[in-house]
Automatic annotation (TrEMBL), chains A, B:
GO molecular function term, any single one: glutamate racemase activity
The family this protein is said to belong to: Belongs to the aspartate/glutamate racemases family.
Active-site residue numbers: 75 (proton donor/acceptor), 186 (proton donor/acceptor)
Descriptive protein name: Glutamate racemase
Species for this entry: Biomaibacter acetigenes
Pfam families: Asp_Glu_race
Name of encoding gene: murI
Reactions catalysed according to its record: L-glutamate = D-glutamate
Length: 282, 282
């Protein structure tokens, strides 16, 4: 297949990266996508650097085996942990979610005081702090790990009492610092936007990494002249490492389109045969 | 080593099984323990039957390589998913946490109406329902998956507003059914006992699987004449599959004793060399 018409690979630890896939579908409807969510080993956010790095290389290798023209690491934890190593290793461009989010935050703040929320691993890595300071060293950054947000989103508790209490508890210290911009440094968090906005107040701008990343994908494809031009409609394929039932159920509600075909693969096994679960063929 | 003096193996998906280890330490202080927590792949509770079964066999094989006289599957998800397969395969006795909990519930209920709470996978498996009905078919059982309890416990939010709201939301339907006994079918849940008791009221008895399982271990060792009689003090060793920092931090607070020595192993690799992290030697 000619390079331009190859799909974009999107890698995530689970279902959260679908926020990034959805933004690519909306902003670049002509592009095809291969999505891999490592649902057997999700979440990555509380695991060690070594373990996350190993899982990430397995995910990258799987997407490369699917002949993609670019890999988007939709997982903040992976982007924060080992993006440079993945870039060095990969024969195709690799794009993370941190630089786009950091750029939007740095250019959007008036007061020069920015908040960053994410998983334990993302926050501990200080990756957003480094990325924002690479752009503007004078910005004050206040970070906060919010480990309960992902399970709340997965339970569908987006705006009930527990969600508000949790958001208030995590965000009040950031609010007291007077931030005017809050980076949602985890792909699950956009689903909590109304609650987070209500807790932070209307004057704080929420930066959605998924949206910013899709914009960056668009820019990169243009610069590299890698845009798809085939007349045939774009194709979306999905791969997971665990039984796809829950992924399909939550994901279809989320993407507002069928998740089909979907296949189950074992990322620990290189060049494996696929156990097909394409529903059309069942 | 003579069979009696070999350690008891305790297997869990992560840190939760330490509630079972602690009960064994308290009830059977003369017994040695080898604990394995699969912290790189935790949690199991939301994953598929196939994936959980594969992880469980890898954990069992690791403990067998440590020359244990018995394996306690402290993980409710594993006990609910594939205990019979593990029992058939293992050359030493394998004990799960479900039968002991089910027996305590069946013998403790006056009204014949029992509640069971656990992870999605444990509840979906209906393992407690089957185990309780095997003892007494007339007991009415109401089950409820409580996926937010584990992240709450891991965040240390045991009795704040979010914990109470979550407990009320999950437990109110069970309370309305008039249960007089509530089985805590997840090793993390005993830490929430005061909150759960407050929500359910003093007349509902909470069945703690960890406590009941340790009692069953004691009974089994007596029956099989496998009690340790060596004069030397018992030895506790710990193995995890991810960086042990967080496990040590949370686990020591939890067990009230040092978690040492601890080693990191990769359960996907059979008969591997151990990457030693024993702190004494560092």
């Amino acid at each position: 297949m000619e390079m331009n018409n190859k799909p974009i690979g999107v890698f995530d630890s689970g279902i959260g990266g679908l926020t990034v896939a959805r933004e690519i579908m909306e902003q670049l409807p002509q592009e095809s996508i291969v999505y891999f969510g490592d649902t057997a080993r999700v979440p990555y956010g509380s695991k060690s650097r070594e373990t996350v790095t190993r899982f990430a290389f397995e995910g990258l290798n799987f997407l490369l085996s699917q002949d993609v023209k670019m890999v988007v690491v939709a997982c903040n934890t992976v982007s924060a942990t080992c993006l440079e190593e993945l870039k060095k290793y990969s024969p195709v461009p690799v794009l993370g979610v941190i630089e786009p989010g950091a750029r939007a935050a740095a250019s959007g703040t008036y007061t020069g005081t920015v908040g960053v929320i994410g998983t334990e691993r993302t926050i501990k890595s200080q990756a957003y702090v480094k990325a924002i300071h690479d752009i503007n060293r004078d910005i004050n950054i206040y970070s906060k790990a919010c480990p309960l947000f992902v399970p709340l989103v997965e339970e569908g508790w987006l705006d009930n009492e527990a969600a508000f209490y949790t958001a208030r508890t995590y965000l009040t210290p950031l609010k007291k610092e007077g931030i005017d911009t809050l980076v949602l440094a985890c792909t699950h968090y956009p689903l909590l936007k109304p609650t987070l906005q209500a807790v932070m107040g209307e004057n704080v701008r929420l930066v959605d990494s998924a949206y910013e990343t899709a914009k960056e994908v668009s820019r990169m494809l243009k610069v590299m002249k890698l845009e798809r031009y085939e007349a045939a409609p774009s194709v979306y394929r999905y791969f997971v490492s665990d039984d796809p039932t829950k992924f399909i159920e939550v994901g279809e509600r989320f993407l507002q389109r069928p998740i089909d075909p979907i296949n189950v693969i074992d990322p620990e096994v290189p060049c494996q045969g696929l156990k097909s679960k394409g529903r059309k063929s069942e």
